[in-house]
Each structure stands twice: as C-alpha cells, then as structure tokens.
Protein: Sugar ABC transporter permease
Amino acid sequence: MKETTISDTASRRPAPAARGGRPRRRKLTFDRVTFFLAFLGVPLAIFVLFVLYPFVQAIFWAMTDWRGFSPDYEFVGLDNFTKMFQDDVFMKALRNIAILAVCVPLVTLTLALGVAVAVTLGGPSRGPVRGIKGASFYRIVSFFPYVVPAIIVGLVWAQMYDPNAGLVNGILTGLGLDGFDKFAWLGETASAMPSLMFVIVWGLVGFYAVLFIAAIKGVPAELYEAARIDGAGRLRMTLSVTLPSIRDTVQTGYIYLGIAALDSFVYVQAMLPGGGPNNSTLTISQRLFNVAFAKQQFGLATAMGVVLAVVTLVFAALVFLVNRLTGGGEGEGRKKAPGAKARRGAVKGGAR
Structure:
C-alpha cells in the first residue's frame, strides 16, 4: 500500500493565491459557462431588451416631432425639452409631483410604522415583549384598502367627496360642522391636493404596515428585553431599537412610495381628470397623457416621459445618499459589527 505523505497531501491542495493577494483565475469549464449563461446572461439580455433598449428608443423619439399615427417625422433635437420647460402647465405639474414625493411617503411610512409598532410591541408592559391581542385582525383590516384596485379607490372617494351628496360632508354636517355643507373638497385649490394625498395614503398605508410588521418580527427579542431592563419605554425602544433595525426596509418603502407618488396617474385621473382647480393636482403623467392622445404630440409627450424617468432616478439616488450620509448602509453595519474576538470576550465576561 502506498503511504500518503505530507508532500502528497499538500500537492493536492488548491494552489495559493499569487503574491499581492490576487487570486488565480479559474479555468472556464462547461459547468461554469452554462451557469453564467443561465443565471447572468439570460436576465441581462431580458433587461437590455425590455428596459435599456426602450429607454434609449424613448430618448430618440423625444428628439422628433412624431405625431404618433404616421411614419413621417423630423429630427428636432432638444426643441421638445426647451418647449416643455417653457410651459407653465408642465412646470406646475413638476412642482405638484415634488410635493407628492415628499409628503406622501413621509405621512404613509409614519402611520404604517405606528400601526406596526402598536401591533407588534403594544402588548402588556410586563413580561416578554409582545404585540396586542387580535394582532392578526388588525393586520387584515389595515391591509384591506391595498387589495382594492387604485381605480376603484379613486372613483369611490370621488363620490364620497361630492359636495351635494357625498358621505364626507354628510358626516361632518351630522357632527354639527355646518361650514362643510356643500363644501367642494376637490373643487377648491386649497383642499384639492390634501384631499388627493389623503386618498393615496389611505390606499397604501396598509401594505407598508404589514411590511413593517414582518420586518419588526425579525428583530431579535433580546434587544427589546435589554432595552426594557434599562428602563426604556415604548417610544424609546421604537427610536433606539426598532428604527435602526429596520432601516433598510424603511428606505426601500420610501423609494417605492416616492415612485408611486411621482406617478399617481390612476388616483388623479379617477378623482380629478382635468388636473384639479388651476392645475393644483396635475401630474406629469397626466400632462403626458393629454399631450399625447388629445393633442397628438407624441414626440413632446415622450420627452415628458424621459424627464419623469430621470426625476424618478434622481429621487431614488437622493434617498440612498441621505441614508448613507445619516449612517445607514450595509457597509456601515459591517464596520460597526463587533468581531469574533469581541464577541468571545463579551461571552467570557458575562460568564464571570
């Protein structure tokens, strides 16, 4: 029998990395090639075909005077963008979506976080930290508005805001507030935008409440127990334990809500198809729709779509940047995470 020596064992080990810490390249085998093609090549091809190519095509059509129903067009360069930013109606729509992108996510996430904390941590103040009784019922009730399609939500609330026979004025009048008799919530410049934002928040807050509940469930219970032993109340635990632990979830929710608010086409078109009094609720997507299908200026409408896409990308980048500057991000978490030696030292210290 052949004896296995140390040199033979060492020869079968993987070759060490080259000097300088750079690992040696692995040979391309059939398995590696098929793996990259299946799990990287196919998704990348789909992304290029259905995302990048249409976006580049939209930029091209935005520089033409295409009418939409004819193969004839002329290249006009940046004239559509110049005309667009000189349009007072478009600039009003741009300001409106900026207000929506700031207010809707902030209010929605605040309410959703309050509901999630109450459901998961609002139980008895003694004993283990747990949620309130009937938490499943409250999750279902809060999630119900999100199940209803947005177009139905908009149409229903448009009827509820009706100044003559709407439920909102009926309830307020029944409570003794006679000043709201036949008040046009969607017909006044001062109340149209807040009324619209209320409906959007009402329709979306349930989904993000359930999302935050799931995220809070993943926070280790030991953190809450330690905070309670130190004398922290529910508000302090929310600010010092819950929010830092679900920071990435909040960031993702803010981006999704901001994108939804920047569009808001369904809600606005269902409740205020004309853009509201003095265009107080007009959005870029609504202006784009009217320019394309009412005026048949598809080149100009495509330019508006390109601007809306750029605004959306800038919004997402700003959210990531603010999160990074305020101490968020996975890199910061890895830097602050204690190493193995520190954890072992803590365990030994606790054992003593």
